[in-house]
Each structure stands twice: as C-alpha cells, then as structure tokens.
Amino acid sequence: MTGVSPLSNHPTIGFVILSHRDPAQLLRLVGALNRLYDDPPIACHHDSAQCPIDKGAFPGNVRFVEPSIRTGWAKWSVVRGFFAALRLLYDHAAPDWFVLMSASDYPIRRAEAVRADLAALGADALIDYRQIGDTVESAAARFGPRNPELDQFESNANRRLKRSHYEGAEIWLPMLRFNDGGRRVRPGRFTIHLPFATPFRPFSRDFPCFYGDHWFTGNMRVARLLLNPTPQHLKLQKHLTMRSCPDECYFQTVLCNEPGLKLVRDNHRYAQWNGGGAHPQLLTDADLDAIRASNAHFARKFAQGAPVLDRIDAMLFD
C-alpha cells in the first residue's frame, strides 16, 4: 500500500458519532469536542427507537440523521447508521478528516497534538486491521506495528471466530427473541456455523478478507471511497448483511484492498480489554496513568458521569 502526502499541516477534523442511549453522555462528549476543536462539524446517528433524545439541547454544529435507523449490536444496521452519518457530515461540510466514535468514547489528547500526528503520519486512515489467516508475526511483517491495546484481536480464539463469522458457511433457523424483560417479542434467527467455508463468499486471492477494531479515523479520500461503493463493495455488503460483527470487517476489507491507500494500523484509540470478552471494560481513575502514557487520541469505554472524565477534562483544558 503506497502512501500519499498529508492533506495539510493543519487539517480540519469532523466527527461521526454513533449513539443509542444516554443523551447526557452524548451531550458531554459533544461539549468536549467543541471546546477542543472549536465547534467542528459533527454528524450523529442516534437510535431514537432505543432511547428518545432532545435534539434541541445540542449546539448548532451537531446534525442528526433523520429518521434514525433501528440498530443492534454486532449487526449490519450499525454500518448503515455510520454511512448515513458520514454522508450527512460531508453533505454539509468538507473536513480533511473524520473520526468515527461512539457516545461512550472521549478525547484524551489536545486537538493540536492530534492534528500534528495526522499531518506527520501522512496516512489516509488510522485503522486496526489484520488479514484472515495471518499470525501476529506475519501481520506485523507485512503491515507494520499495531495498536498495543488491541491484543483482543490477536488471540487464536478470536482468529477462529472471525474466520467463521466472515468466511464460514452458516445455516439460519427462525426463532423468537424476547426483549425489554420479555415485554416485547420479535422474530430472530438462530445461526448454526458449519466447519467449512461458504462457496458464496465475496473474498478471493485478489480481494482477501480483513478485520479489526471498529473505530477508526479516515481522510476525505477514504470518505469518498466509502460513500461511493464499487460493485465489489456492494457484493461484500450483501454478504455481510446477515453476518455477525460486520462493522469489524467491512471497513478493513474495503480499505485494505484499495490500491494506493496508506493505512496506519495503530488507530490511536485506548481501550482496556483485560484479556478478552465481547466489550472492553469500563475505564476508571485506575486507568488514568495508562491513558496519559498512551499515544491514543481517544479512549473508550466510559460510563455516564464517570469521575475519571473530570480528571481527563482537567488534563485537557487546564
């Protein structure tokens, strides 16, 4: 993957935020971004079906996707929500860079330091990735160093799981799911994973499958690519629509297979997985020293009103 020159020495940055609960937490995040980045363009997809939100409480630089898409964890609907927010961002602004965040993320580096990093790296995207079948050593040799906080993706169990999610054959059986403590019933499916690859997968020697952490930063060139999918990208979308965790495969596969893009594997996000699990652990005051010592631009996940956020505000704004 060959490189391109930085867009500028003082790049403009916009934000795409995915949210589905805790409007107060989203509002606090927006306030921090506005103070750091001088009221940047922000596009938010908030799933109003999961949690109502008063959009009038937010400053004018924040735009919301309307109507919102009903999203679900590890489902293609999350990718759809991102596409809608990214398009909204670039329909009304033209930032050199966009940052994909959740409402439980928070900035941990001053804006001037983030801009300096983006200019110095000369990259098109900061995105965590590895190819299906790679070992830790082969990925490092081919693509360079990764974010050290994302050991979660390097375990043998995770590698087997991702191969099954994205390349494996599956059978789906109908079932009923009970939500909201059994008060709501909806149709669902039970997935049986088969021990061989599906012959209908869109991947090939010339278009291999990549995966990694969902959260990334990209420049305008990356935004244009994602908003204008090729026939091959549309085939990949169709394949991932019914697959688990498509948000940890689609962006990596599209960007890693695009000639001429320079990708930095360190996505500059701090998270503490503590050895595994489906979600990173909630960060607390005990993580503050490690957050300060990291080279990350943003961190996740934080609980609403977590005291450590006040400590981070003091670090950023005092």
TrEMBL record:
Membrane topology: Single-pass type II membrane protein
One protein family per Pfam: Branch
Keyword field contains Membrane: yes
InterPro entries, sorted: Glyco_trans_14 (IPR003406), XYLT (IPR043538)
Localization per Swiss-Prot or TrEMBL: Endoplasmic reticulum membrane; Golgi apparatus membrane
Domain of life: Bacteria
KW DNA-binding (keyword) present: no
Swiss-Prot/TrEMBL keywords: Disulfide bond, Endoplasmic reticulum, Glycoprotein, Glycosyltransferase, Golgi apparatus, Membrane, Metal-binding, Signal-anchor, Transferase, Transmembrane, Transmembrane helix
The protein, known as: Peptide O-xylosyltransferase
Species assigned in the record: Sphingomonas endophytica
